[in-house]
TrEMBL record:
SUPFAM superfamilies (alphabetical): NAD(P)-binding Rossmann-fold domains (SSF51735)
Keyword vocabulary terms for this entry: Oxidoreductase, Plasmid
Keyword Transcription regulation on entry: no
Record carries keyword Metal-binding: no
Family stated for the protein in its record: Belongs to the short-chain dehydrogenases/reductases (SDR) family.
Matching PROSITE patterns: ADH_SHORT
Pfam name, any one: adh_short_C2
Organism the protein comes from: Aliisedimentitalea scapharcae
GO terms of molecular function: oxidoreductase activity
Name this protein carries in UniProt: SDR family oxidoreductase
EC number(s) given by UniProt: 1.1.-.-
């Protein structure tokens, strides 16, 4: 088991991707804290049973501090932090209210900042063992290129990419590796909402037709699963990735490799 003896915390740990990461970490032998707004989350499966649930709003500084204090008291260190919590607003900037804009940045950017800030002392403790600690942020292929109608989301993910590189430079000398996962289309409740929504996804159209169109625009003719993301996260969290830091790992079925997104 690659993560035996490791302590991990996953924000958004009851969401589609977060839940898959928690379940994978548990199978690999880690002690896992699943942090989210509610224990139920968005899925009915319970492979992540055995994790320690923490009710946490990543944009609330006091709550984040209290969560890290709990980890310190119970475990004394934190080997792995995964910042998977995120929201998506399907609007152009003209249609986005200031409140929606600020909420997007509060969760996607400020949440990543706060959770990382207060995890760092615990991660330094973990690095004293001789193995590096691993901090994994969630960007997006939308931080490189853009889907229409996702302006605030694209902006937040570009910010997370830049923050990831900066953190890798600042904390690499302390034995803390920092990377970002940049997913493309992943089969999660957020994606299904995108298909059914009035924004750049479905515009109320036929979901099956839209799903096929999205699959067909990929060179691999499919979109990913939360388990695909968890596989990469698991490797970056492990000591096998000891030399991997400061990188933006795109996992999108070849979508962003194309000169243009063509329906062939």
């Amino acid at each position: 088991m690659k993560l035996e003896g490791k302590i991990a915390l996953v924000t958004g740990g009851r969401g589609g991707i977060g839940r898959a990461i928690v379940a994978r970490f548990l199978r690999e032998g880690a002690t896992v804290y699943a942090a989210d707004l509610s224990p139920q989350g968005s899925l009915a499966e319970h492979d992540e049973e055995g994790s320690r649930f923490v009710q946490m709003n990543v944009a609330d500084e006091a709550v984040v501090q209290a969560t890290m204090e709990r980890v310190r008291k119970e475990c004394g260190k934190l080997d792995i932090l995964v910042n998977a919590a995120g929201i998506e607003i399907e609007k152009t900037i003209e249609d986005t209210s200031l409140e929606e804009w600020n909420q997007s940045f509060a969760v996607n950017c400020t949440g990543t900042f706060l959770t990382s800030k207060y995890a760092l002392p615990l991660m330094r403790e973990a690095a004293k063992s001789g193995n590096s600690a691993s901090l994994i942020n969630f960007g997006s292929y939308d931080g490189f290129i853009a889907d229409p109608g996702l302006a605030a989301y694209c902006a937040t993910k570009g910010a997370v990419h830049a923050l990831t590189r900066a953190m890798a430079c600042d904390h690499g000398p302390e034995g803390i590796r920092v990377n970002a996962i940049c997913p493309g289309y992943i089969d999660t409740p957020m994606l299904q909402s995108f298909f059914a929504g009035d924004g750049s996804g479905g515009e109320g159209g036929n979901i099956e037709t839209l799903q096929k169109a999205v699959r067909d625009v990929h060179p691999m003719r499919t979109y990913g699963t939360p388990e695909d993301i968890a596989n990469l996260v698991n490797w970056l969290a492990s000591d096998e990735a000891r030399y991997a830091s400061g990188q933006l790992w795109v996992l999108d079925g070849g979508l962003s490799a194309q000169v243009q997104q063509m329906k062939l």
